[in-house]
Design a protein that fits this description.
76% helix, Serine Threonine Protein Phosphatase 5, Tetratricopeptide repeat, elongated, mainly alpha
Length: 447
């Protein structure tokens, strides 16, 4: 919703002593000299605190000067001096939204609606309720304010609010009403197709997107092409066309980068992902960039973008830290990540940091759950390091039955057998590890 503050009202005749000062303050406001305008309005109010125009002008000047707390006080004062006037409550709600206080904004907008149920007051109330996490109430507010004279923008806002409140079926008739009045409303086609797809009507959703593409011209088509791409098996051409129409559509750039990344083309994914990130540095875009850089073994950029991704990037950040030799940091990063991959890395780190028993405790349940040979090889190494050689032999033979070309498993089997005094078997295991490329086995065998 576009935030709008009321301009100062026309001055009343008969204020001979104050008229010039009010006009001067308004001239300063119109000239963009907001600090001077605020000072002028303050001076006027010090002489007559019941001048409506001065209260309104002061609040607007403070908002435009970026002095939001002062503006909040100014509009709050306005509501106390003029409790029956709509403008004070409406503007107070807008300031509260800018201050990140949606609950207080909703209270102010509710009073504005009670005084004058305008379209913008209802939109303000709904927006505040939505920001406060009260999606159902946000939708109900717009439903209460629905009237024949409401604009298409209001009806579209109602459909969006119903969708956000998980009342998709109710949103559909509202969207069709918008489109029946103006078929060029790209946002309405987009939301309609999204709802139909989520209701399991993918083919109908695609047909509605195609109808929208026939009715919508210019850059607005880009969002419909993005929706078509998200509904299609082969979306690349639609994504590229969407970006050609609207290079600022970051979602299309992100989707194209993700597609290339999924196909294993990490280098090709970088350009669209970087484009998306420049436009809107969303956490999911940063995460995709980190994944692309990890595949390209650019660990510095992996770490950077994984950090930008926030909590969702902790595992990729840990992988980058590990690759950069920062093992303690990597271990700290994976402590709270519960995925099997993260815990496998945690086990490997504990092993490398000499904490073999802890490593075995982490790796054993992972191996028992999925029987992953690499996890099993690390578990075997932890058991060897913990001097539990008999357990290590049994486990590593099981691992090698699944993955007979896993050099680390042969190497650790050789170490376990040597510790058990079975040198001939140990040498055969180490020789096999050396054949498979184990530098450690080659060093032990003197090769």
């Amino acid at each position: 919703m576009t935030r709008r503050f009321f301009p100062t009202i026309l001055l009343l005749a008969g204020l001979a002593s104050g008229q010039v000062s009010l006009e001067g303050a308004e001239a300063l406001l119109k000239a963009g000299r907001y600090a001077e305008a605020a000072a002028a309005y303050e001076e006027i109010l010090s002489r007559d605190y019941r001048l409506f125009a001065a209260h309104l002008g002061l609040g607007v000047a403070l908002v435009r000067a970026g002095r939001l707390e002062e503006a909040r006080f100014a509009f709050d004062q306005m509501t106390r001096v003029f409790p029956d006037r709509y403008e004070g409550f409406y503007n107070l709600g807008q300031v509260y939204l800018r201050l990140g206080k949606p609950q207080e904004a909703a209270e102010a907008f509710s009073k504005a609606v009670a005084l004058n149920p305008t379209e913008e007051a209802y939109l303000g109330l709904s927006g505040a309720l939505a920001q406060a996490g009260r999606a159902g109430e946000a939708a109900e507010a717009l439903k209460r304010g629905l009237a024949p004279e409401r604009s298409l923008a209001y009806r579209l806002a109602l459909a969006k609010a119903l969708y956000a409140a998980d009342r998709r079926a109710e949103a559909v008739p509202v969207l069709y009403e918008v489109l029946n009045r103006d078929a060029a409303q790209a946002e309405a086609w987009d939301l309609l197709a999204r709802i139909l797809a989520e209701e399991g009507l993918k083919e109908r959703a695609l047909r509605e997107v195609d109808r929208g593409l026939k009715a919508v011209q210019g850059p607005a088509r880009a969002r419909l092409l993005l929706r078509k791409a998200l509904l299609s098996e082969n979306p690349d051409a639609y994504l590229e066309e969407a970006l050609a129409l609207d290079p600022g559509l970051w979602e299309a750039a992100y989707a194209l980068g993700q597609r290339r990344l999924e196909r294993g083309d990490a280098r090709g994914a970088l350009e669209p992902l970087r484009q998306a990130y420049r436009i809107s540095p969303e956490p999911q875009v940063a995460l995709a960039l980190a994944a692309a850089y990890l595949r390209l073994r650019d660990f510095g950029n992996t770490y950077r973008y994984a950090q930008e991704a926030g909590p969702s990037g902790a595992f990729l950040r840990a992988q980058a830290a590990y690759a950069l030799g920062r093992k303690e940091e990597a271990l700290a990063l994976v402590e709270g990540v519960g995925s099997p991959e993260a815990q496998a890395l945690r086990g490997a780190l504990l092993l490398e940091l000499g904490r073999a028993e802890e490593a075995a405790a982490v790796l054993r349940p992972l191996y028992q759950e999925a029987k992953d040979p690499e996890v099993g090889a690390n578990l075997g190494a932890a058991l060897v390091a913990a001097r539990r050689f008999g357990e290590a032999e049994l486990l590593l033979r099981e691992v090698l039955a699944q993955a007979p070309r896993l050099a680390p498993a042969w190497y650790n089997l050789g170490l376990a057998l040597s510790a058990l005094g079975r040198e001939a078997e140990a040498r055969r295991a180490l020789a096999r590890a050396a054949e498979l490329g184990s530098a450690e086995a080659k060093a032990l065998l003197g090769r």
